[in-house]
UniProtKB/TrEMBL annotation:
The keyword tRNA-binding does not apply. This is Protein AF-9 homolog. It comes from Cristinia sonorae. Residues 3-175 form the YEATS domain. Its main location: nucleus. The chain holds residues 4 to 178 of 260 of the full protein. It is found in: Nucleus; Cytoplasm.
Length: 175
């Protein structure tokens, strides 16, 4: 196992969420314990080469050549708040009523010999333009929000590997 001293290699990712307001028809299909839910959302880690507001997955967006697992830690109001995703797309979809901080833990293939990387994403449900007062807690008018369409909140980041193992480096550059 040879480390390449002085070498740095990085992979660009995006992480974040999309959210849409539930229609009355969708709400009617929710179980009784979820009747107060207002939104459907997806939180994800994707390649920065992908298009965040599309449904395109796999292909160029497949990060599984170096990512083994993405764990999404949801708010404790959710059943089984720890969601492990072991293959692409690295995402979790849920319904809910509130925004909260999602802890995202990214772990790498064994070959990498790298520690898990944690990032944090504030799950965003409400359009910026409807938050009249900064830090406002009350939910904006759902009809107005529905007209504005899906909310997107994505962050760009780079996963940096310093002194990578030669074999891991070879896997990275082969993609
Ligand atoms: C608050 N920051 O303290 C928020 C927490 C939690 C949202 C929001 C699902 C709940 C369920 C859900 O939307 N939780 O499935 O019962 O106000």
């Amino acid at each position: 196992r040879v480390r390449m001293r002085g070498v740095t290699i990085h992979r660009p990712i995006i992480y974040g969420n999309t959210a849409v307001v539930l229609t009355p028809e969708e709400k009617a299909l929710l179980p009784p314990n979820k009747q107060e839910h207002t939104h459907r959302w997806t939180v994800a880690v994707r390649s920065a080469a992908s298009v965040p507001d599309s449904d395109i997955v796999g292909g160029a967006d497949d990060l599984s050549y170096f990512i083994k697992r993405v764990s999404f830690k949801l708010h404790d109001t959710y059943q089984n708040p720890n969601r492990n995703v072991d293959k692409p797309p690295f995402e979790v979809s849920e319904t809910g009523w509130g925004e909260f901080e999602v802890t995202i833990r990214i772990s790498f293939i064994t070959e990498a010999g790298e520690k898990t990387v944690s990032v944090f994403h504030h799950l965003k449900l409400h359009p910026w333009s409807l938050l009249v007062n900064p830090g406002e807690l009350a939910d904006p008018n759902p009809e107005a929000a529905a007209k504005l369409g899906p909310v997107h909140s994505w962050q760009y980041d780079e996963i940096v590997f310093n002194d990578p193992f030669q074999s891991f480096y070879n896997i990275l550059i082969a993609h």
